[in-house]
Amino acid sequence: MKKLIALLIVCTSVMCMFASCSDEEKESSVSGESSVSEESAEEETTTEETAVSEDAEEIELLTEPETHEYIDADPTAFIGKWECEKIVADGEEMTDLMGIPIYASYQYDIRDDGTAGLSESLMAIMTEADAIEYTWGLISEEEIEIAGNNGSVIQFTLDGDYLVSKMSDQNTEVYLKKVDEFTEFDFQDYIDNYEAPAYELTPVQTDAEGNIIESTETTTAE
To answer: How do strand 172-179 and strand 199-201 relate by DSSP bridges?
Structure first.
């Protein structure tokens, strides 16, 4: 249950979906490099170990999410409730996210006090520990940045009637449109009836020397 709720938060929270993908990949790379450095450092002097440690700390700082300075401009056009109208990935419009309707995948209440929140239907299934607090600000007259206290960051550009975000891979665009009220979605019912999709596995076979033998047989896993 807890993992599923975490998945929902990833699918519906402002910054937890695609925005930090590139940062996570960098952190993974840094972690791997750090492990190698630590193994080598055991055979070197204490001075060299300290230098490696200091370098690792500097690299880690560089992988933190990029943020911008906020400007003082009229925020009126951004304030209100914004709901996802479409997500386009690699040129194709998505119809849902793991069974969650597109409209429910992004629903953000951008407030005039500099804070932002998720829809009440999502908040209803979240525990106090799961909750993320958001703030936002203008980084240009047509761009805003929303930041969570979990370190996640995402930017949206005002494009006509839409707020548009190009995700880190630059092949995915999220379009939000302002609404009077959020379209309701029963997340609890979704959780209660969620079934992981079946997928096919191709058995891996090897010869006596360990070389992989291609196989056309598949098995279904759930």
So the answer is: unpaired
Q: Minimal CA–CA distance to 217: which of 207, 199, 202?
A: 202
| Dist. CA 163–CA 80, nearest whole Å | 12
- Phi, psi dihedrals of residue 166, rounded to the nearest 5°: -95, 120
Partners of residue 136 on adjacent β-strands: 146
Is residue 130 within 8 A of residue 65, CB to CB? The reply is no
Q: Are strands 205-206 and 199-201 parallel, antiparallel or unpaired?
A: unpaired
- pTM flag (> 0.70): no
Amino acid at 179: V
Distance between CA atoms of 160 and 15, rounded to whole angstroms?
A: 22
Tell me the per-residue pLDDT of 158-201, one tens digit each, with 9 for 90 and over.
Answer: 999 999 998 766 688 999 999 999 999 998 888 888 877 665 66
CA pseudo-torsion sign 125, 130, 131, 135: negative
Instruction: For 91-141, write each residue's pLDDT tens digit.
Output: 899 988 888 999 998 899 999 999 999 888 888 888 877 788 899 999 999
Residue partners of 49: CB distance under 8 A and separation at least 6: 41
**Cβ-based neighbours of 187, under 8 Å, separated by 6 or more:** 8, 104, 121, 122, 124, 125
CA distance 8 to 100: 9
3-state secondary structure of 30: helix
Token digits of residue 9: 């938060």
